[in-house]
Amino acid sequence: WLIGKAKPSSSEDVDNRTGGSQEPYHPTLGIYGRCTRISHMQLSRRDTLCGPYAENFNEIASGFWQATAIFLAVGIMILCAVAFVSVFTMCVQSIMKKSIFNVCGLLQGIAGLFLILGLMLYPAGWGCQKAISYCGPYASAYKLGDCSLGWAFYTAIGGTILTFICAVFSAQAEIATSSDKVQEEIEEGKNLICLL
């Protein structure tokens, strides 16, 4: 999620093929994972090691990042439930007298709110000690210091936007399937109905 300030290669990090030193690298830090260069592995092509820095939930660097992880997990679980329920839309059109499209759209909207909460809390954790070690002493809540945002944060924002777009499509699906023209087609015995 965060791309740390450039770390210079040490004097041991010399490229044996060219004799010159390697480029500085940028370590990365996520909510519970990180990537860093391992100096004793320079002879192999895989000199960057990625993995979790937190062995359990309590070791996540910031309370804000713990909350972010919870909100994102709840939002994703709701979206998985919506995906599971949507498979049954071919057989069931209502749940407790409510349209399945409206139920799915409502759940997608709720999941989107959880995702937004997680994304809003994430920058509040930039002042934690782990983030400061990656981003420099000027890093604090909502201030990146010497770091930049990585692709994971932008992907999460894109996924949140798509969640709300899907909720709007669910409402449009309800409108399309409840129209008089569709009901007439169903009464005529047609199973596959396409309206433009």
Automatic annotation (TrEMBL):
Q: Does the keyword rRNA-binding apply?
A: no
**What are the start and end residues of every segment in region (Disordered)?**
1-25
Q: Which UniProt keywords apply?
A: Membrane, Transmembrane, Transmembrane helix
In terms of InterPro entries, this protein maps to: LHFPL (IPR019372)
- Give the stretches traversing the membrane: 64-88, 100-122, 151-171
Work out whether the entry's keyword set contains Lyase: no
| GO cellular component assignments | membrane
Query: Which cellular compartments is it found in?
Result: Membrane
Its main subcellular localisation, reduced to a broad class, is membrane
Membrane topology (UniProt):
Multi-pass membrane protein
What's the protein called, per UniProt?
Lipoma HMGIC fusion partner-like 2 protein
In its UniProt entry, the species of origin is given as: Nipponia nippon
